[in-house]
Amino acid sequence: MTIINTSHVEITTFFLVGIPGLEYAHIWISIPICCMYFVAILGNCTILFIIKTEPSLHEPMYYFLSMLALSDLGLSLSSLPTMLRTLLFNASTISANTCFAQEFFIHGFTACESSVLLIMSFDRFLAIHNPLRYSSILTTVRVAQIGGVLFFKSFLLVLPFPITLRKLKYCNKSQLSHSYCLHQDVMKLACSDNQINVIYGFFGALCVMVDFMLIVVSYILILKTVLGIATQKEQLKALNTCTSHICAVIIFYLPIINLAIVHRFVRHASPLFSVLMANVLLLVPPLMNPIVYCIKTRQIRIRVVAKLCQKQI
User: Fold this and answer.
1) How many CB atoms lie within 10 A of CB 302?
2) Would you put residue 201 in left (φ > 0), alpha (ψ -120 to 50) or beta?
3) Which one of 59, 203, 258, 259 has the minimum C-beta count within 10 Å?
4) Using CA of residue 57, residue 58, residue 64, residue 69, what is the dihedral sign?
5) Which residues contact 203 (CB under 8 A, 6 or more apart)?
6) Is 303 in contact with 54 (CB distance < 8 Å)?
């Protein structure tokens, strides 16, 4: 609900929704979603544990992978409480401050993941283009500094979101379009001028797409380097080190691009499609990234299997 007086607006409650048109099946939909969250959290915690406990994995590539796992964990834990509460218990209310905090963390960890994927593409380019100097350039201290800057930059980028939303006036509308809070969703409920939110929201989305374009440039440079390698066997070996990262990039950016195309070119898109695409963005990358890296990265796979065998013994 919204309480308004002439000088001050106090926003107390927003209302979340589950899956439009499938309210009767929320309890059943919550079962696979619970399983996805469980696998995502378990998988990313496993990646972090393996990298931390195995000295042979204390290399730049795996440090960046641990940053990706942290971003995925943050993304999962940011949306988990309200999504399951809405689907399982039909508890759709959320206080304004909690909503603003949630959208800050969701957008912050999304920006983190985009930045980490970008730096991982540079990491792969450096490893293929200049392998002899790779370890001397990306030292442990430098990797830690890069990670700190990336996380700080990502959350600084989205910091204006909750601040500007808090200053808007909300009159009659209080129902959101998802089972969690997003900046673009909340600002549409405002009855005051939200032009600043629209412009800054576009700027934030543009920053994520710039990351994607720089990743594409990185892979163009990688492909150019690989084509200069003498034998086909060495070319395939070099490209094989990038397959996990390419999968992670596709899994993360495909829903974003689909949503952008729908919002830009499709005037009467189904609300169900937008909700499903947004859910895919929040659920699938944290779920699939650990699986992809365990399957495609031999060093991770061997350590995971070894730990499982030890527990069975």
Assistant:
1) 13
2) alpha
3) 203
4) positive
5) none
6) yes
Whether residue 294 contacts residue 301, with contact meaning beta carbons closer than 8 Å, is answered with yes
Rounded to 5°, angle at Cα 266 from 264 and 268: 125
Q: What percent of the chain has pLDDT over 90?
A: 38
Q: What is the pLDDT of residues 104-140, one digit of tens each?
A: 999 999 999 999 999 999 999 998 888 888 888 888 8
Place of tokens 């809070």: 181
Which tokens sit at 18? 């589950």
Tokens of 99: 């909503």
Q: Is 180 exposed, middle or buried (0-12, 13-18, 19+ CB in 10 A)?
A: buried
Mean pLDDT of the chain: 85
**pTM reported for the whole predicted model:** 0.90
Range list of H helices, 130-139: 134-137
Q: Which of 278, 212, 206 is nearest to 246 (CA)?
A: 212
Dump strand ranges (E) for 23-92: none
Cβ within 8 Å of residue 300, ≥6 positions away: 47, 50, 57, 62, 65, 293, 294
Rounded to an integer, what distance in angstroms lies between the CA atom of residue 36 and that of residue 225? Answer: 38
CA 61 from centre of chain: 19
C-alpha–C-alpha distance, residues 8 and 3, integer Å? 9
